[in-house]
Fold this protein.
Amino acid sequence: MSSTPWWADQDVWRKTAIWVTSLMLVALIMLTFDTVKQITAGSERVPAYSVINHRIYYRVDTERNLPAPVIGAEAPLFGVVLSEPEAAALVDKGKLTVQAKNCMNCHTLLGNGAYYAPDLTKAWLDQGWGAEAVREQLMLNFLMDPESNARGYGTNRKMPDMGLTEDEARGIIAFLKWMSAIDTNGFPRNFKPIKQEGE
Amino acid sequence: MAHAVDTTFPDTIPRGKLNTRDLNAGQRLAVKYFSVAMLLFIAQILFGLLAGLQYLWPDFLYNKLDFNVNRMVHINAMIIWMLYGFIGSIYWLVEDEAGTELVGAKLGNLAFWVLTAAVTVVVAVFLLVQTGPGEHQSIWLINEGREYIEAPRWADFGIVAVVLVFFYNTAATFMKGRWSGISGVLVLDLIALAGLYLAGMFYSSNISMDQHWWWWVIHLWVEATWEVLVGCIMAWGLIKTLGARRKIVTTWLYIEVALMFGSGILGLGHHYFWIGTPEYWLSIGGFFSALEPIPLVAMVVHAVYDSGVHRFKNSNHPALAWLIAHAFGNFFGAGVWGFMHTLPQINLYTHGTQWTASHGHLAFFGAYATINIAMFYIAIQKWRGGVFMGSGIPHAWRWKWALALLNIGVLGMTMALLISGYEQSFVERALHGSTWAGYFEAQRSDWFVQGMVWRQIFGYVTAAGLVLLVWDLITIGKGETRPAEEPTATTVINSNETLQPSSA
Amino acid sequence: MSMMTEPVEAQQIMLAAMAGAMVVLFGAVYAFLFAWSKLHKRPVIMLAAYLSYLCLAAATVALAFALHLSGFWLIVVFVMLVGYLLAPHAIWHLCEGTHEPSTPHGTDEITSQPIPLEIKQ
């Protein structure tokens, strides 16, 4: 044939490319099966939607050496205990609204999105809401009239009026509360949550 | 003897003006895609400038054209113009590579107009309607609200249909003509490209699930299938502009595929650190991220080897300059800027800050904008009748300054964003416990604001470079009567003689 | 046990990022000088190449310290050190192998047969 050594042969490398790619794909698919199981709502890492009926704390998990979510006593959102399907419907409304209003092109969610506005991963637990007792109302006021309730902390940046209905705003709050209970391996770093009852 | 794109022209063909008639059917389609790509490139920069200004003056266009709209158009225009560039590049080379005429020129033309009409409608809706109520109809008709793939669902189906037509056209043309190593890799890569898009076409109220599959589209496109697509275009480009030998180029394409997919597929793991996905992704993502610079190191060695062993004479100076910019840009943007903050121990501070924007600007420009621009120059050379584009062309300052300004502009933005990003991760994450107050504390800090000012200044530099680039692409080769030189690689016998397109 | 053990300290974010950048940069400089020296048969340059590799190794060690790497992560560091050292050798070898003149008129690589399609997907 030719003087090309086998390890430099075109055919050998074609087969290598095929094998390497196939191997990686198989590994990815196997990992995906496990990952999808672990991130399905209702699992240990991604809680069921009815978690919005409870208080959410962050405590350092010494074994993992990072702060992890801990589900506390009952503390229903807007004072109403919801069944799992009701909670799921409310969070769903929030998630749909977050997409339809294009929140992600100013904010980040789980750190992904744009960087013009604060990360929303643990917005529910942010100290900026002051006290636990007024948080829900403040969030509602802010979402429905962000211009008058602007929270720019001395910058001129303020959220535009997204024309949210009260249902949509409540949905967003439920979605934020649920999202704050997702185990994110300690992201964002050093997060210092709002003081809540029972701590 | 080596054949260039331009040597297929007999002397009777008029040079120095646009000769669409003398392009083959694939190339006629390609120049349409390239033209729209340039328009979208302009849109990308314009809306980027608007969004950048809003960092400095938040009241600018407030409640009219808010940051989220400008930023959405900025990143979508980028993704779409690069796709247009890739599709165009492949239509440009398909007849040449297959040695036969494009199978479905009419169908391809129809698909082009459908896609372009759809893009126009999508952008118009983005700008005029902007957002909708929290209902499914909004993400079907207005805006899907997921970064990079904001196009509403109806448009997703359109995109898939058009990509299928494109896939059919490419694969069937190779099937009718002949296969080569490059076309084999290309066709398989296109299957993956189209298939992966489907992973982004469903709704989930579970944000972890949403982002898990969303990364399949974004990462496996940008860091795997796009890279291989560029590898194919580059391989073909090296044969055409430098007369590199096909067998060697093909072998190296396979090597590159092995390295890229070997490190890139599970490199997906570095996006799975913080979105609710299991902890084992920290190890997998970290490990494969450490491997990702290896293909780049391989290219360095190979480039030095090639430059020493072969004497290349290239026929298209602007294109070659942009290919070199591609090599450097890819290395710094993807390699250096990527590895800088990819390990989880540091990514915990940098994820979701301007670090990502810094990396994004350099990597997208370096890896993908550059190669597309190189293809535009290859195309315009032939479109003008195969004109001389070597050293000493008139008005060469235009392409040189366009190259310089675009590169300096993007590099400047990257550095400025890096400074802002460092300040942000330090103040917001380290000092202030990742709270909203901490976020705004960082946004107000002097270093951050300075970074944003310089980003804007370098944004204008980039825009100036783009204006020159457009001007140059419109005028280069106009009135040029000298024929193009033939690219040659003198130490090898070129194998390309049998590869002539339908013009024969 | 956490897979991450201990994130970087705030004061060392920049150090860690720069160390990471230097790993890749010196990786490229080493690869470049290595290839250059081989090409022009200049052993002095090879010395410079290995000096760059030493800088790379130092950057890797700095990175490992800044990021508090231990356990599994030290394996990654080791793989990186060995990988960066050997990769240019391997690639050079491959360059020589693939560029060896074989069939003079290389029309062999164009076929009318489709490449087997069971690949990848």
